[in-house]
Amino acid sequence: MGTTAEGNGVAEANGNSGQPPAPPRKWYHINKQFMPIKLIYFCCHAAGISILPLLTLHMTSIGLTFADVAQVYLFMPVASFLGPPVIGFLADRTGRIRDLYIGCLVMHCVFHHALLFVPPSPHTTPEALAASANGTALSCTDWPPPSCANLTRSLHCHLECPPDSEGELLACPAGDSCLSVGAAAELVLQLGADGCQLPALLTDNVTELELAHAELSCPDGCRLECAPGDELPISDRTTYWTYFFLRLAATFFLAPAFTLLDATCLAVVKEFRSPGQNFGRQRVGGIIASVIMPPLVGAIIDAVSTPGATDYSPAFYAMEICMVLTIVTIFVFHLHVSLPEKAHIGQLFKVLRRPEALVFILVVAILGSMWGFLESFLFVFLKKLKAPTYMLGLTMTVAGLASIPANWWSDAICSRIGHINILIISFFGYLARYVGYSYIRNPWLAFPFELLEVATTHLMWNSAATYAGQLAPPGLLATLTGFAGALHYSFGRGIGSFLGGYLMALFGPVIAMRSMGVASGVCGVLYAVAFYGCLRGHMTRRELRQRQKALARQQSEKFGEGPHEMAAMLEEVGMAAK
């Protein structure tokens, strides 16, 4: 009996009524229901992160100028906006959502891989620009000049003769008499398909002649001092248009691939509703991919490249391998792909009637332009500082690792600092990044500024998405958040890349960086003044009016006033709230 009592006591102490005690809980837990979506996030983001950050470098390597790059990025948001609704419409009509998703993955790989076969522009590749005859001295004894087919800008030349010489250019146009042109004349060797072998243009105050080189005599003992013209180098149009259409087609299929992936993730989270398994934690696979893949791909590129010529093909092959793994994962785990919720575009104007919402949308777009310029041209700038390709990938690794705790505790950080304050801090974070980059001459010094990406990108978007939830009326959360995301990641990036590309082409990377930094700082100051000086008071007064109107309705319903008394009461409330 004593033994039985002891046994019962032990059983009661364990709380299992005689059942064996539960095993101790492990510090980790693998939820098999969410493992497929995490794997797909890793593979899909690994494919994108392998190639997308390097595409600007690839564009310049085949001879596209900064102006060309800017124009391509300007039109890419059009493809990003068109892709998701078109694929969504086809999915609604056919019901074959998973097949269309896999088709998007395959087609974006096909069009991106086709970029490897775009013919390079012969006169504007980095090798041609380095060997260009721009800014040279042409000897008169060797006139007409030798072949200069590697010329990338027209040359503007002036005759330079010894002080005791009265040397003049002698122009003898065909079928006309010869004439002497003074030293003040300018000789322009025009740029064309044959370099500077086209007819030269000779101008002074009274004369303008187009001359073949053999029709111009240069006196002995003198030389022509030449400098490149102000016009931008012009790439081969076949190269530009081929790349332009292939890149837009690739973007058209890439955008819905990521949209459908996010929608599927949301559907899985809602279906299983497991504690701790929220939308953000499923995206950790994408963050891990951004930590691992960039330096790995960069190291392979450095290993296969030759001095003076970088081979970017390993990035394209890595993209394709990861995309094959994505498709295999979808079939193995029988993942059901979901469509995103439809946005109520017609009701978006209800949100934009509020001044704070309109300013918020504008701020998100401006921050997107700041992000877009760095995404498109930071690697180009670091490459000019002789950064190895694997180091470019390490910058993304550092930013990704730093973002993990920031994303994990983003709700607490946003609540502590405030959503508006984080948006304002993001502007000044971009100011510090841009100005800091412009002063470094060692590419490894970029890492401290990369850490600021935690504030300018990750905390910024978490704060923006949460603030959108506060601004959006009931039923319009998805609409406002989706619209803000499109403005930031598509429209804003396109505008930033376009403006930044032309600034790079006209003034160089240092001036472009500092200009964008100053613009970001000014926007941050203006937003702080606008919100704390005007918008916050406007929002407070509107909320006070809404509370007072709600209270007036409650009193009216309680005491049974008629509609006329109710209208008078609401009018008095509105006057009191002003």
UniProtKB/TrEMBL annotation:
Keywords: Membrane, Transmembrane, Transmembrane helix. InterPro entries: MFS_assoc_dom, MFS_MFSD6, MFS_trans_sf. GO terms for cellular component: membrane. The chain crosses the membrane at residues 39-60, 72-91, 284-304, 316-337, 358-382, 388-408, 420-440, 467-487, 494-512, 518-535. It is a multi-pass membrane protein. It is found in: Membrane. Residues 1-22 are annotated as: Disordered. Gene3D superfamilies: MFS general substrate transporter like domains (1.20.1250.20). It comes from the Eukaryota. Its main location: membrane. Residues 37-511 form the Major facilitator superfamily associated domain. PROSITE patterns: IQ. PANTHER family: MAJOR FACILITATOR SUPERFAMILY DOMAIN-CONTAINING PROTEIN 6-LIKE (PTHR16172:SF41). Belongs to the major facilitator superfamily. MFSD6 family. This is Major facilitator superfamily domain-containing protein 6. It comes from Amphibalanus amphitrite (Striped barnacle).
